[in-house]
Amino acid sequence: MSNSDVAGRSTRSRDVVFGVLTNETRRHLLQIVRDRSPTGISKRALARELAAVLTDAEPATVTDAELERTLVECHHSHLPYLLDSGLVVETDSDTVAAGDHWAFDDPVVRTLLDNQMDSNVVETLASILTDPQRRTVLSVLANYQKPVSTDTLARDVTGREMRDTEAIDFQERLDYVLAALVHDHLPRLQQAGLVRTDDQRDQISYEGGSQLRDTLVTTTASCEPVVS
Q1: What is this structure's pTM?
Q2: Structural contact between residues 75 and 69, judged by C-beta atoms closer than 8 angstroms
Q3: CA distances to 95, 141, 175 from 86, in Å
Q4: What is the mean pLDDT of the chain?
Q5: CA distance 206 to 204
Q6: The CATH number fitting domain 6-106, selected from 1.10.287, 3.40.50, 1.10.3470, 1.10.10
Q7: Mean pLDDT calculated for residue range 46-53
Q8: CA–CA distance from 140 to each of 26, 133, 169, 185 (Å)?
Q9: Which of 17, 47, 83, 139 has a CB 3.0–4.6 Å from the CB of 216, allowing a cystine?
Q10: Is the confidence at residue 3, as pLDDT, over 50?
């Protein structure tokens, strides 16, 4: 679990990781598998531990019905998703372990997995980070040494997204980004406590802390142009 290669952190990979973290069941599932790695854990034992977590009980007290229901959910929904993402791998037909994935070395992902925050806070933050443009907004803001205007932020985000993409009209893209900032991204980020806005002076500043800043630097270092 030591793959920290930034080049491997594609937009798709980042979307999937933060998407997993918005789902409480998959988050718990990933926690259990990670904590049992590199040895791994049988799928039945995994289902038992997951059922115990979800029902706030001891594994030994999980009923047969709860175990079978959780096994079915893991088999048909959660495990296929995690296996496809590379976060979890099968070591044999009945055992799974954590994959060699950058997410396990990421400080923010570790924080979100380690139950250091309220579940609702975790899901809110993960949901925010699932959106690639919102990650770019935070990454750009985190690099500023002082508050900036909405227009400056929009121009820098547009420039980041249009890097090496000359076919797109800059002004058209800028108008799109500016509208997204005002009506979507900034209200969400402010509500989550990740940015501070002063509407009277049109000033925006980053409030996400150094740990999230480090994650944003690495997860957007090879930012792919957004051309929607």
Answers
A1: 0.72
A2: no
A3: 15, 30, 37
A4: 85
A5: 7
A6: 1.10.10
A7: 96
A8: 30, 11, 21, 13
A9: 139
A10: no
Chain-centroid distance of CA 149 in Å reads 27
- How far apart are the C-alpha atoms of 79 and 98, rounded to whole Å? 12
For 96, list phi and psi in degrees, rounded to 5. -125, 155
SS3 of residue 196 by DSSP = strand
**Residue 127 predicted with pLDDT over 90:** no
User: Of 145 and 69, which is predicted with more confidence?
Assistant: 69
The mean per-residue pLDDT over the stretch 136-141 comes to 90
The answer on pLDDT for 62 being more than 50 is yes
86 backbone dihedrals φ, ψ, rounded to 5° = 85, -5
Angle between helices 132-142 and 209-219 (to 10 degrees): 120
Tokens of 143: 């690099």
* Residue found by looking up tokens 């690495």 in the block: 218
What fold is seen in the domain 131-219? Arc Repressor Mutant, subunit A (1.10.10)
Crossing angle for the helix pair 150-161 and 170-180, to the nearest 10 degrees: 120
Residues of the chain with CATH 1.10.10: 6-106, 131-219
CA 204 to chain CA mean position, Å: 23
- Residues with Cβ within 8 Å of residue 10, at least 6 apart in sequence: 222, 224
Q: What is the pLDDT of residue 83?
A: 96
Q: Which two tokens stand for residue 16?
A: 């999937």
Percent of the chain with pLDDT over 70: 84
CA 218 to chain centre: 13
Q: pLDDT at position 103, please?
A: 92
